[in-house]
Amino acid sequence: MVSLRESLGLPPLVAPAEDRIAPDVPDLDNNTLKTALVEMIRMRRIEEDAAKAYGRGKISGFCHLYIGQEAVAEGTVLAIRPDDYMISAYREHAQALAKGMDAKGIMAELFGKKTGSVKGKGGSMHLFDNKVHFLGGHGIVGGQIPIAAGVGFAIRYNEEDRVCICFFGDAAINQGAFYEAANMAVVWKLPVIFICENNLYGMGTAIRRTSATATLAQRADGLAMPSAQVDGQHVFRMYEAVYRAVQRARAGEGPTLIEALCYRYRGHSMSDPQKYRTREEVEQAKEYDPITGLQAILAARGVLTEADVESIEQQVRLEMDEVVQFADTSELPPVEWAFEDVLVENEVNHA
Ligand SMILES: Cc1ncc(C[n+]2csc(CCOP(=O)(O)OP(=O)(O)O)c2C)c(N)n1
Ligand SMILES: [Mg+2]
Q: Which of 23, 94, 312, 316 has its CA 20 to 30 A from that of 344?
């Protein structure tokens, strides 16, 4: 039987002991990689806890989980600076955490509490924190893409050397907004890195039914934009691709499109019967889990034992228990807050 990886045209995985970062990209030391592993475990646990809280009726409305796609966010963060921008769609909790947003603020926002990152008024799809340059959380498919081009324009206008990372899904690349914004980004050489997370489905529709091109990376060809299709389940491959794109962007050479092949283990949102795929397919995708993949590399290098992993798991569990407790015991925002922060002049800081 053809494996999921083969069907995607991905090269075979390198043995963990031999797995290295490409020579043209700065290597990452073992401590950085250990921290990356901790961050990926935090991403997964906060999402698992969000799922549990959703089940207990603590979170209302939509809630889209990122479980399985952690290497895309972490590989990206490893290749950028804290002052770079990041903007995303509604599957953004883990990306917000990776960018440095406070876990308590994220969970409290999901719970709709006043201590949430946007005071409980945005919810799951609208996480935002200017302090760490995370610009949302957008519910309209593709809506964040032109905003990213605008951020890129502002960076150039202000003569800064920052970049803007723009995440969006495989379905979002079919939005006209992508082509309009991407074209301007190429013409004006804007420092935007477009990262299309191809998790193979847009809600319940498989990518093979909606794309005539073999890859989504090749959509950039008609725009004269450099592009690459990468293994988004592997933190090294993501880091390399984003690093190269960031180098180009900071050098004033303009945007790149990165197609990150990945897979979401959970449904599109919390209420998804998943009739469009088989259990076997999901199980196959899990064989290349991004977290166990990095763990295996660190173990093969002798820098991480099973006991270390257990202790990381335990620490993250304690952290997330506290995070959920914080969200649960926080108060709801008062009704009057609904009329505040609507316009910029109106902004009220309740911190
Ligand atoms: C403009 C617009 N059309 C339709 C929707 C409904 N919708 C929400 S998510 C989604 C699928 C998007 O899939 P993809 O871009 O692949 O991202 P993923 O959910 O896989 O992360 C659709 C059609 C929407 N939110 N906005
Ligand atoms: Mg998708």
A: 94
